[in-house]
């Protein structure tokens, strides 16, 4: 066989296997792991589909990964207690090195991993070790497993048998016996249960019961049922051999039912048993926490009542008697035991009737054991956990954490009324009206932390105890792992920052402030004011000092140490009177504040002198004092000594003034060059932010306008450019130059968006194409072009400031702060996580914030250069109800241990293809049901010593769609196109910023112009190709875009990129069924012909299983004018599937000069589980085309509908020679398959199809498959994975 260029194709040398390369899936289980008493490191074990991954908590590095099950995702992990330290081991205890440490389960699959295997995995020392589960054997239990436990080594017999237990979805406990005779062998005992309701959650706890029989182990079981009840019971496990048990006349009791709790109004999704807790009076209590889809957290008392033994009444054929739960199947006389009420069959549904509830007569009072109840989260609560602390003798609250579908973690503090609790416990909660459920304590919500993207937090782990740090890990549907807890273990914050949260009134501060007595003398002639004195303005002078002003005109200087200390700043009567009515306060440099008054006076306060002095008087009320980003580098680079400059705006003046101060000479300079506040777009221009970008002065206005000024030789800064963003009327709050750039800057706005602009100077006569949205100001020598490069809405309602900071790994991060609802938020754009959330009442209040190593307060919003400070620590002060609240944070509430992705199912995957170099996959885009698009860069290998696993580097997130995204494609590397419901179709412009900040710049350039009146159609698919005369290395002038809509309409447009103009070329309607796919059939354009001379042809697929070829002849007029569109004609229609076509891919066209035809190879996948290979030919007959096809059908290619299909390799031969196409298909059966089709060029014989490989896919509900690199294919669905298929 010969390939391109006449070379024969050697099929034996083409790769025939798929190899797993990368996976990013939901984290389904988590556990903390301490390897040995001699190893202080803390590890997190994370389950990602079938893999167990090990991360170092301190460094966030992936240490190793181990494939545990073949095709079953891991659902749960249990880590047993630490083995004895070497110094405490006795002779013969070395065999503990092979003791099972980790119990793993998923569905009904079970495995254990010994200590020795974990040790081998940790030997990598930071280099990830990928081990296929050679040392892990998979065992099968009889039912779905909800929880498991391993018994400590003290319960082993002969050092060769390890005990354990599992609890199933039917409230059964299955004992485990694990033998280590060279290899691990596991046997399952007889299931035991007091009743078999359907559970949604369960938890096991090993008890230290005072049992005379040392061979009996007691397990406390809590099961949450589908119908809102919780069954609490004990299971007794005997380590005696079966033969010895047979010799006894009666077995020991196997179980004992303790309680059946009711109260939840929905299914129980989480239960957690606490350790035994010591209270302040010396009493001990054991608690059970539960959560439900009724959005409540409940805490129950499961402590045994004093001197009371639970008994159940049972009915026999001879009468009524009593029987301790879980007795043997026969009594001492050999009579069979009659089933109790708990073992009877149940009806389904909520309620209190006899036959559909686990609650019987003896359980009627159990619901009174509910100590406290509270409602939290905005949707279902999945899990609840205790921290493990047992000593609460100091009266401290019991800490509980809940984890919800809303992807948040909430902390609760349980406080008990101990006297009331003791009385109720002594009477067994049988006091009637005295024992009201939920009346024995309170659950106080102490904080909400958003942990993940999208929905669902599927796994949690909490590690802690008395004297130990508390660590909390969460894993979500987005594949991310977050960590929170003791920062000494997790990650240190700024050493000088402590955690402080205090609220003070002016009176509180004045009582403790130094120097108040001499400053409280009333001003002569003033009447005594009855107005409440409150705080008005704040300015951080440094990380540890701030200036607070009051409504009475006083200045208070605060210092942060172990606590807040205050000094009153002495003011003369004149200054006090001047500042009482109105003032502005800002801090231009550390240790300095400037204040502007209504009289036009500007005052200076310096910490070193602790006094205030007048600097200058302006002709009118000081409207604002603007701190200028980048002014130090532009105006004072040759002036040592901390000189600074600010912009003063004066009420009534049409210009602003630059005021400079030199501390070394204590001199004030007013720049004679006036800054005239006017523009063609906004009048009056009220400045709210300022910055120098290089030598250019930029101002932002109160209504969203941006103005560029240049300095001339005369007495003014003249307007060089102005722009009014018509999409907002909110104020520009900050302007920050991009690091390493003199032409790009960022603006933050109170409309919740931040934008990045680039300034370009074009010489006179330049021919650069300008965008429609760009405004140009011409001069004699040049014109200035202002490009909007980036426009994004982070999850903040109002942006107040932004700063760039460099992380410990050298990555530049953008930190944004502002308000969302009632909360103050600090947001990391690179990690997409909230660094701070403080409930403050919302925006429109006096506040200030300072970050480590910041040169000034938030009024300046940081500098364009990058600080090397950590992003978490901060200090925030604000006014609420006239009082001051001071909040200091040493570290963020959580950090990311492992990066994640989308929080919902992926529906589209696309890889960019360069027009100039033909490089595939420089950028990768994924779109999901969460309505977001994420841009990535795939790291195919470990290119940096800091990286520990290959994967996807996030570049940008696009959030504009309001409905689930249907399709997405790249146009070169400069544009990305996406479609969704509600007739949403967006064209995104993608550019690489010329700065040290590496994120991609994205702006929505255009959208679908012909929305219907209702706007309720889905654009289910589209295709795009280049159009126009262009050469390699250039950007095409236009795009040819064809859309398939949910009303069976197809439309083709020409989109002119430079003008952002749409022209409708053709449209048609398929009357048989709904369209699902559309592709362009690229026709050969002979030399001298223009695009479209041979018409436009498209291929569509539909829900009735048909492929259709459409064609239209297009005149040249619509290419330049908005003329009347043409109608598509159906050239061919043929049925290939029995039902809907879900996947479609088309090869490149091949032109046969002898036959004057063109051919394509088409592959489709459908709901009929089939994959069809079709050879499609367009044969020239006269002046028309006729479609011919030959097909190869693979029935039952998958066990479920084929949802995606992709050609990954093409090898084409000459006429009569063999051609090869390799295809990857995906399906809802979670299999990924590699196919090879071989056929003869020019022949109408069907292709010969061979299945090359069939692999388990970890991606459920697969939605798309795409080639992202040479030899790499990506599958997207619930998660995403990459497969190697060979270069």
Automatic annotation (TrEMBL):
Residues 314-323 have a biased composition (Low complexity). Coiled coil: none annotated. The keyword Isomerase does not apply. Keywords: Cytoplasm, Repeat, tRNA processing, WD repeat. It holds the Pfam family WD40. Belongs to the WD repeat WDR6 family. This is WD40 repeat-like protein. It comes from Pseudoneurospora amorphoporcata.
């Amino acid at each position: 066989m010969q390939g391109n260029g006449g070379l024969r194709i050697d099929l034996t040398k083409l790769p025939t296997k798929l190899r797993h390369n990368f996976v990013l899936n939901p984290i389904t289980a988590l556990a903390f792991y301490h390897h040995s008493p001699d190893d202080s490191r803390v590890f997190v074990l994370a389950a990602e589909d079938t893999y167990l991954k090990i991360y170092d908590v301190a460094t966030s590095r992936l240490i190793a990964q181990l494939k545990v099950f073949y095709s079953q995702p891991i659902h749960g992990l249990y880590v047993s207690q630490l083995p004895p330290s070497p110094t405490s081991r006795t002779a013969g205890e070395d065999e503990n090195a092979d003791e099972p440490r980790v119990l793993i389960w998923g569905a009904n699959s079970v495995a254990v991993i010994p200590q020795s295997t974990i040790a081998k995995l940790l030997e990598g020392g930071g280099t990830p070790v990928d081990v296929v589960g050679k040392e892990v054997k998979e065992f099968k239990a009889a039912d779905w497993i909800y929880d498991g436990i391993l018994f400590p080594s003290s319960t082993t017999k002969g050092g060769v048998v390890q005990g354990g237990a599992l609890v199933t979805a039917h409230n059964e406990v299955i004992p485990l016996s694990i033998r280590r005779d060279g290899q691990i062998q596991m046997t399952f005992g007889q299931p035991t249960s007091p009743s078999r309701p359907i559970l949604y959650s369960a938890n096991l706890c090993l008890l230290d019961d005072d049992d005379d029989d040392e061979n009996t182990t007691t397990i406390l079981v809590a099961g949450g049922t589908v119908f809102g009840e919780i069954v609490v019971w004990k299971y007794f496990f005997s380590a005696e051999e079966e033969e010895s048990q047979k010799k006894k006349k009666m077995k020991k009791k196997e179980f004992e039912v303790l309680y059946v709790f009711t109260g939840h109004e929905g299914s129980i999704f989480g239960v957690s048993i606490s350790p035994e807790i010591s209270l302040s009076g010396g009493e001990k209590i054991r608690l059970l926490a539960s959560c439900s889809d009724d959005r409540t957290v409940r805490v129950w008392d499961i402590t045994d009542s004093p001197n009371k033994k639970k008994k159940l009444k049972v009915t026999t054929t001879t009468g009524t008697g009593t029987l301790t739960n879980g007795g043997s199947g026969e009594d001492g006389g050999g009579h069979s035991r009659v089933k109790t009420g708990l073992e009877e069959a149940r009806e389904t549904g909520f309620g209190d009737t006899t036959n559909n509830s686990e609650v019987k007569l003896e359980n009627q009072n159990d619901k009174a054991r509910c100590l406290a109840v509270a409602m939290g989260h905005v949707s279902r609560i999945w899990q609840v956990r205790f921290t493990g602390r047992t000593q609460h003798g100091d009266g401290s609250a019991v800490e509980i954490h809940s984890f919800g579908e809303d992807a948040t973690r909430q902390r609760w503090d349980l406080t008990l009324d101990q006297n009331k609790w003791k009385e109720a416990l002594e009477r067994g909660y049988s006091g009637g009206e005295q024992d009201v459920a939920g009346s024995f304590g309170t659950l106080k919500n102490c904080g909400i932390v958003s942990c993940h993207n999208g929905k669902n937090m599927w796994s949690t782990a909490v590690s802690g105890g008395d004297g130990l740090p508390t660590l909390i890990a969460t894993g979500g549907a987005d594949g991310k792992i977050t960590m929170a807890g003791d920062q000494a273990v997790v990650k240190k914050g700024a050493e000088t920052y402590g955690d402080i949260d205090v609220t003070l009134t002016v009176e509180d501060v004045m009582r403790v402030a130094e120097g108040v007595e001499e400053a409280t003398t009333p001003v002569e002639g003033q009447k005594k004011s009855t107005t409440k004195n409150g705080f008005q303005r704040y300015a951080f002078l440094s990380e540890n000092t701030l200036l607070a002003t009051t409504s009475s005109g006083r200045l208070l200087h605060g210092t942060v140490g172990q606590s807040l200390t205050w000094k009153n700043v002495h003011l003369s009567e004149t200054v006090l009177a001047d500042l009482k009515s109105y003032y502005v306060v800002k801090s231009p440099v550390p240790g300095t504040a400037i204040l502007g008054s209504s009289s036009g006076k500007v005052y200076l306060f310096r910490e070193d002198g602790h006094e205030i002095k007048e600097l200058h008087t302006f002709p009118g009320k000081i409207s604002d004092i603007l701190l200028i980003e980048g002014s130090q580098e532009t105006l004072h680079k040759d002036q040592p000594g901390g000189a600074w400059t600010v912009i003063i705006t004066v009420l009534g003046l049409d210009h602003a003034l630059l005021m400079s101060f030199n501390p070394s000479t204590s001199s004030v300079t007013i720049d004679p060059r006036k800054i005239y506040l006017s523009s063609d777009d906004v009048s009056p221009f009220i400045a709210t932010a300022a910055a120098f970008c290089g030598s250019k002065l930029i101002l932002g206005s109160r209504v969203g306008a941006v103005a560029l000024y240049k300095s001339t030789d005369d007495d003014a800064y003249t307007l060089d450019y102005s722009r009014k963003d018509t999409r907002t009327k909110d104020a520009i709050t900050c302007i920050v130059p991009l690091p390493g750039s003199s032409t790009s800057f960022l603006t933050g706005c109170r409309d919740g968006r931040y934008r990045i602009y680039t300034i370009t100077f074009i010489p006179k006569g330049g021919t650069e194409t300008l965008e429609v949205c760009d405004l140009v100001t011409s001069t004699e020598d040049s014109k200035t072009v202002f490009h909007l490069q980036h426009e994004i809405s982070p999850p903040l309602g109002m942006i107040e400031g932004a700063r760039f900071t460099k992380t410990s790994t050298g990555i530049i991060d953008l930190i944004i702060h502002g308000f969302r609802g009632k909360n103050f938020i600090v947001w990391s754009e690179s990690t997409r996580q909230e660094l701070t959330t403080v409930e403050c009442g919302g925006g429109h209040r006096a506040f200030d914030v300072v970050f480590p190593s910041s040169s000034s307060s938030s009024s300046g919003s940081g500098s364009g250069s990058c600080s090397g400070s950590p992003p978490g620590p901060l200090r925030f002060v604000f006014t609420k109800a006239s009082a001051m609240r001071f909040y200091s944070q040493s570290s963020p509430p959580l950090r990311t241990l492992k990066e994640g992705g989308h929080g919902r199912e992926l529906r589209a995957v696309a890889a960019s293809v360069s027009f100039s170099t033909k490089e595939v996959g420089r950028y990768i885009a994924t779109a999901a049901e969460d309505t977001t698009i994420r841009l990535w860069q795939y790291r195919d290998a470990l290119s940096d010593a800091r990286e520990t696993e290959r994967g996807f580097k996030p570049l940008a997130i696009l959030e504009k769609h309001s409905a689930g995204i249907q399709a997405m494609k790249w146009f070169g590397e400069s544009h990305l196109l996406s479609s969704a419901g509600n007739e949403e179709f967006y064209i995104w412009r993608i550019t690489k910023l010329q700065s040290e900040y590496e994120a991609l710049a994205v702006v929505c350039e255009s959208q679908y112009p012909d929305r219907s009146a209702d706007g309720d159609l889905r654009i289910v698919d589209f295709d795009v190709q280049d159009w126009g005369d262009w050469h390699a290395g250039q950007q095409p002038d236009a795009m040819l875009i064809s859309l398939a809509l949910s009303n069976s309409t197809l439309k083709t447009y020409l989109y002119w990129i430079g003008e952002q103009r749409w022209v409708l070329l053709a449209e048609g309607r398929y009357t048989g069924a709904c369209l699902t796919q559309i592709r362009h059939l690229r026709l050969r354009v002979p030399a001298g012909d223009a695009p479209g001379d041979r018409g436009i042809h498209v291929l569509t697929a539909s829900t009735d299983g048909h492929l259709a070829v459409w064609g239209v002849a297009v005149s040249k007029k619509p290419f330049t004018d908005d003329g009347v569109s043409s109608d598509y004609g159906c050239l061919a229609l043929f049925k290939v599937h029995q039902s809907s076509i879900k996947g479609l891919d088309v090869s490149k066209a091949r032109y046969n000069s002898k036959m004057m035809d063109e051919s394509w190879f088409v592959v489709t996948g459908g709901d009929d589980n089939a994959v069809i290979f079709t050879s499609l030919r367009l044969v020239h007959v006269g002046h028309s085309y006729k479609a011919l096809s030959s097909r190869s059908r693979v029935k039952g290619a998958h066990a479920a509908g084929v949802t995606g299909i992709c050609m990954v390799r093409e090898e084409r031969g000459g006429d009569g020679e063999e051609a090869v196409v390799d295809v990857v298909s995906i399906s809802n059966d979670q299999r990924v398959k590699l196919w090879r089709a071989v056929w003869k060029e020019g022949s109408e014989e069907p292709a010969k199809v061979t299945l090359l490989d069939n692999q388990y896919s970890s991606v459920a509900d697969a939605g798309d498959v795409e080639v992202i690199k040479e030899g790499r294919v990506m599958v997207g669905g619930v998660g995403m994975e990459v497969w190697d298929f060979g270069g």
